[in-house]
Amino acid sequence: MAKPQKGNKYYGKKILFFDGDGTLWYPKTTRHKINPHWIYKRKNIGKNYMRYLTIIPAVTKVLRKLKTQDIVLILLSAHPYAHKKAMRILKKKIDHFKLADFFDEYYATIDNPEAKGNMMVDILKHRGIAKSKALMIGDSYWYDYISARKVGIEALLLETKYTNYPLKGRKAKSTIKSIKEIPYLILS
């Protein structure tokens, strides 16, 4: 677990963006061993995917702690579906895992690696928050980490067994092994 450090670059963030699949919840059987999106592609699972998902241990505790510090929490989740359907699916997951009280806003973005970064910029402009006060947390190198970094927002990559880096060996500079590390980084 990351230890708090004086001068920590994540201390004092005012807004945190979280990814959903693989960051806050994952398939019960494969957890962080296989990219979680397989669950939506299996024909035998279909619309019953919710019973195969589970919230990642410590997520509720971490979000509760962050919320008591008046940090704005936003959920961003990429979906291949049309916007209305994607938002319904995301809302269903939020309700199923009882996360509604923690998030100030939630958005389903289009299934494009740059979409989350663009959405973050729009949200920050709307809320009048500087990019330097924002942080993205997710499990996808391209959709979460790089998407945020390309628009000038700090990002933490949740390392998993399925974390994929580019062939040239470029790696994320800021990583965590567990969601439990976040309060130590943000609040210390």
Structure in a nutshell:
This protein has helices at 38-41, 59-67, 83-96, 115-127, 141-150, 182-187; strands at 15-18, 25-27, 53-55, 72-79, 105-110, 134-138, 154-158, 175-176.
Structure, explained:
By secondary structure, the chain is an alpha/beta fold. The protein has a single domain, classed as Rossmann fold. Helix content is 30%, strand content 19%. Helix 4 (115-127) packs across helix 5 (141-150). The radius of gyration is 16 Å and the shape is globular. The model is unreliable at 1-6 (pLDDT under 50).
Spatial order of strands in the largest sheet? 5-4-1-6-7-8
User: Uncertain runs with pLDDT below 50, 5 residues or more?
Assistant: 1-6
The Cα radius of gyration reads: 16 Å
Any idea of the CATH topology? Answer: Rossmann fold
* Secondary-structure arrangement, i.e. CATH architecture: 3-Layer(aba) Sandwich
Question: What is the average per-residue confidence, as pLDDT, rounded to a whole number?
Answer: 91
Number of helices: 6
Termini separation: 13 Å
Shape: globular
Q: Determine the strand fraction and express it as a percent band.
A: 15-25%
**Largest sheet composition:** 6 strands, parallel
